Amino acid sequence: MNDAAEFLKTKLGGFAPRYGIVLGSGLGSLVEAVEEPLRVSYTEIPGFPVSSVSGHSGELVAGKLGGVPVAMLSGRSHYYERGDANAMRVPIEALKRLGIESLILTNSAGSLREDMPPGSVMRIGDHIGFSGSNPLIGVESDDRFVGMTNAYDAELAERMQKAAARLGIPLQSGVYMWFSGPSFETPAEIRMARILGADAVGMSTVPEVILARFFGLRVAAASVVTNFGAGMTGAELSHDETKDMAPVGGKRLAAILKEMIASEA
Question: Fewer CB near the last or first residue (10 Å), C or N of the chain?
């Protein structure tokens, strides 16, 4: 039994979202596009983690986006906050039990490509889980052996690309590499990531993709580029830069997601 799901079913009065959306650092602007929003603080929801990261508001927002019922998680808990890759299990399972079929994940990331500068948006086509952890460690059934060949749903990816094209917003695609954080990567680690085939690096999302697939959800994901990787420009990285730059690409991503979801209405 998921106490969070039971609480939300009562709190939301039977509201049944079709999409779940997780908003990363500085990407809360998408919440403003939700029609007739119902807001619930994470502190009210049984078992929900409360993020300690500035830029993550920590509330569930339910309503319609482009005429389609959605539930947004404005803010996430990260592996680096408590060393727990399973931190987002309760929220994702709760969304599943509320009825979502698809989960859209967003994050802020560092670019490893000179043709993908800050402010760009990248659809995640695949990932590298470099942290060495996994949210399914400790699950005592064969369900833990989740296939990840098609972790990112092809039909959702196509709809995201077409939505961006209709809006005239450039949408890159690439491989996202998950580092544990909270310290930023070193220049040597960035060089390694580029050799291994990564296009962007970040500190979230991958555990949530694994959990979503574990719960049988379709997944789409996108990164807003806030900086170039360490050593690419000579400048030091900071979380303030992430918070300052995320809204720039965040507005583009918000428009894409609204168009993508509205196209199904």
Answer: N
Q: Which residues lie across from 225 on neighbouring strands?
A: 109
pLDDT digits (tens, 9 = 90+) for 117-141: 999 999 999 999 999 999 999 999 9
DSSP single-letter state for residue 118: T
Number of helices (H) and strands (E), helices first, in the chain? 7, 9
Q: Which of 213, 14, 1 is nearest to 99 (CA)?
A: 14
Q: Kindly report, residue by residue over 149-180, the tens digit of the pLDDT.
A: 999 999 999 999 999 999 999 999 999 999 99
Average pLDDT, the chain: 92
Cis peptide before 187 (omega within 30 of 0): no
pTM: 0.93
Q: How far apart are the first and last CA of the chain?
A: 31
Tens-place pLDDT, residues 89-118: 999 999 999 999 999 999 999 999 999 999
**Using an 8 Å Cβ cutoff, are 66 and 191 in contact?**
no
DSSP string over 128-141 = E-TTS--TTTT--S
* Residue listed under structure tokens 């399973």: 86
Answer for the pair 48, 7: CB distance below 8 angstroms, yes or no. Answer: no
Q: With the CA atoms of 100, 164, 120 and 73 taken in that order, what torsion angle do they form, in degrees rounded to the nearest 10?
A: -20
Strands 121-128 and 35-41: unpaired
CATH architecture of 15-262: 3-Layer(aba) Sandwich (3.40)
